[in-house]
Amino acid sequence: ASNQAQLMEVLKKEVRAMLIAAKAGLTPDQLEEQYMAMVCKPLPLHDLGFQSTLELVTQMPEVVRICSCKNGTLILKAIADDSTKGIAKLVASQKVKTRKASKKTAVKANATFPTKNSRSPQSFQPLSAGTPVLPTAVKAELQDLLSSSPLLLADLDKAFLRRFGRAFQYRQYGFLSMFEVLRSMSDSIVVEQTKAGSLLLLRKCLASHIEQEEVPQAEAEQEEMTPLEPICETESINQEALLKDSEPVQAQAVDLDDHLRQHRGLEQFPPAPEIPPDAVQDRSLCSLPPLKRRCLVGVLVEFVVSPSQFYIHICSTEASYKLQDLMFEMRHVYSHKVASDKYVMPESAVRPGQLCCVMVSKWWYRVIIHRVVSDQEVEVFYADYGHLQVVQKSWLRFLKWHYLKLPAQAIPCSLAWVKPVEGRWSSAAILLFKHLCRFKELVGIVDEYVDGVLYLFLCDTSTKEDVYFHSVLRDMGYADVCGENIPSQEFEELNPSALYVQPSGNAEVVEPDLCLQQESRDADSGTATLKLDKAEL
Asked: Which residue ranges does the record assign to the Tudor domain (predicted)?
């Protein structure tokens, strides 16, 4: 009974934090989905003796208010307590509509940097509003979907489900409508009005880029041949003649080998797989160049362990395109059987620290093997996203040298000037921090780097008053603002980036000293790029 009471108290804090962050409230089903997404386990209904989520929340009258819509749908809304009234007010003031596309996400150059005695969110000057941002992988999926042919907006959901095996749920990324999603991708997707309805097309510059990659499989297979293969018609004829001349000798050798096996009972062992000359074996990815102290930059939080351990992407069209281009090219190359078979990793290469790539849901990602879990599984670190995951060994492939050039895109971070009041971050504090960060472009204020970890302040500018996350955690009673950066206990226990990614400038990526047929495809396209303005404080 005492364990159930303790679990219920923790759950009340988590549910209140989730509902406060949802301005319009959540349905019971949405609450279940949000809880699973944030806590990575289902609501503990069975452990508490409840049969449904609705039954659970009816036992939280001081936490949840149950409202009924005109269509009969039940909406759950938070009841703020004394410690959360300020946060609820800020969420209630959040803008519903995004700002006009012409207003770039930028920051004011005259913003005041916080001092050690700063206590309130108003210690910074107001910044311009941020908007929801689609994850890079989802952007790539939409572009891939439209690369073959245009689609009517009315058919998008069915086409997405058919192609990727799941529904496109844009609301989970913070968007209120599909048109907001399309506005956020106006640099790559065009909407044209036709008699049949809104038609979605990929912009010509991007479509032509993808079309160039969509070569016939036979051509792709030819590209994936080793440097020893013929590269012109004359050499092909000469090699064909050479093969014909050598056939009798090869036949004799085979016959003799069969004869020896029959008389000696020897087994024929398969030859050791030949490692491609352009396969990465003993190199590491480099990190992005460090950001200047006190500069302001747009960021997207990709993965959260706690406020003291999370990973960000720098928000810029240029960086987004480079990562998307890499994902498209890797999918194009490794999806062909010739390349897939060619870059299979032998057991001897599956070891901790090995840089390689892995296929998940038809997309390929750069990863580093962290540990071997079993004969069939390994745990890998996603260098461009920041998280660890257990995958099948059979999903791994050698990484081509060409894919070393783009630095690891995930930046390890810790929230500046805060420490947990209880020694370690509570589950409610982590849940709140995830809600504050989720699928939203934020403004980051760089403080300093400590042991390769970026300490920065985070600010949500999508409300009437700018919300600074260190102040929110302090006001909720989860954190102390200490005016200095305490080394992250989580990163001290495990920092995969420090283990496997070299600091920027420590190593230059040099192509293998071989006449590789496939030339680098990382030339800059003519697509215009949009960079966030940075300002010194």
From this structure: 349-406
Cα angle for residues 30, 31, 34 (degrees, 5° grid): 85
pTM of this prediction?
0.60
Judge contact between 324 and 467, C-beta under 8 A: no
- Identify the band that residue 420 occupies on the pLDDT scale cut at 50, 70 and 90: very high
Residue 320: how many other CB atoms lie within 10 Å: 23
Task: Yes or no: say if 482 and 419 are a contact pair by the CB < 8 Å rule.
Answer: yes
Which among 148, 134, 166 is positioned nearest to 361, based on CA atoms?
166
Yes or no: domain 3-92 corresponds to CATH 3.30.420.610? yes
Full DSSP string of 315-326: --HHHHHHHHHH
pLDDT at position 314 is 93
Report residue 373's pLDDT band, with 50, 70 and 90 as the boundaries.
very high
Chosen CATH of 295-500 out of 3.30.710.10, 3.50.50.60, 1.10.132.60, 2.30.30.140: 2.30.30.140
For residues 328 and 322, give the distance between their C-alpha atoms in angstroms, rounded to a whole number.
10
CA proximity to 300, closest of 427, 130, 138, 102: 130
Q: Which two tokens stand for residue 477?
A: 């009673």
- Give me the mean pLDDT over the 298-319 stretch: 91
Helices 28-39, 427-437: axis angle to 10 degrees equals 100
